[in-house]
Amino acid sequence: MKKILTVLLAAGLVLALTLPAWAVDSEFGGYWRTRAFTQQGFAGSDAGTQDLQQVDTRTRLFYTAIFSEDFKFVNRFEINAAWGDTTGGNIGTDGTTIFRIKHTYGNFNFGPVNVLLGLQPRVLNRGFLFDDDYAGAAVTFKGEGFSVPFIWMKAYEGGMGNDKNDNDVDYFFLNPTFAFGKNAVKPLLGYIYSKDASKWASTTGNKELKAYFVGLDADVDFGMGSAWFTGLYEGGSADLISGASQDVKAYLLALGGKVNLGALDIHGQVFYATGEDRDSKDTTEAFFVPRGQSYYWSEIMGLGIFDNQASKNSCADKISNITAANLGVGFKASDKLSFAFDLWYAKLEERDAKNNDALGTEIDLKMTYSLMKNLNLDVVAAYLFVGDATYTGANDKDAYEVGTRLSFSF
After folding, report:
1. Are 228 and 217 within 8 A, CB to CB?
2. pTM for this one?
3. Residue 40 in contact with residue 400, Cβ under 8 Å?
4. CA dihedral in degrees (206, 120, 302, 402; nearest 10)?
5. Which residues contact 223 (CB under 8 A, 6 or more apart)?
6. For residues 138 and 126, is the Cβ–Cβ distance under 8 A?
């Protein structure tokens, strides 16, 4: 840790000394959090295999060099440590594996065309399809009331050698936005291709992979509230190493909204994603994204604030083979204090090998208090009445989570 901070400080001094010669403006920012939590019964039984008590810290540092309104160089770094671990949180805090370069990319404007080139973030279909960082390019044409981005993600590089390019895995997306006041519609076309995807851990077992996505996001603002919709269809084909070929036929539907009643709000959502039919031999029906999909929902089944694990057999943030529904109430007691209460129910869309489908019913309580400007305290308590698809043994046990997070941003 000390070596990393020394390098960062030296780099900052070099930039400080050289920036005036470049006539470059700079933006600095960041995010910090420390969480303390306990997670019990996540295995759905009294075996305790997923029980955890932990304190951890995350720091993110942002630096952007602004050469002009049309040319920016964006960098974001991340440092993670679980208190007492062997990679940075132990005595000495001399970790070497907790420092990450999250983003480093150029942001260029050429008239109405914006180009993002490098390691960058992207969200597609609210995370039901993609919410992660990637290496690639995004070229966006911006017009009056609309924008049309074309996105290329290099998911896996096959490397050097004869026919190694066959192992490349590439994502391609076209995701325009059409705005109508506060309302918006965002259609999507996506394509994932590899001539031989067997070398990538996320697609092991596949040879030629040709999967496409057709989707739509819609957001509606009706004054006292809002509503949203996401729909995705996944098609294509996958040739397996075994020699068999499978057609891909899967879909996902999600709907949500919120009504504001002064200091009170009522919110809810429901989503559904197809699962794998065990009786199907030549068709893949489970909604699947090799890597990059991330949609957080409940605290225990859907990762939530303490996102290191989810309850057993839940899809967590990789939404597939599930039907989930939520109804919640939010209350803003003051400018500094707010509360949220959420009720969730989730089940597998395709039953498991024991013919079970219920994941459970979950109750989430959250309090957020602003200690001072930019400094927030969150307190969370969650309880899952486990269903028969969560526990696998005779000694079932409900799951619970209690924790707190202190965070600030600048």
Report:
1. yes
2. 0.91
3. yes
4. 140
5. none
6. no
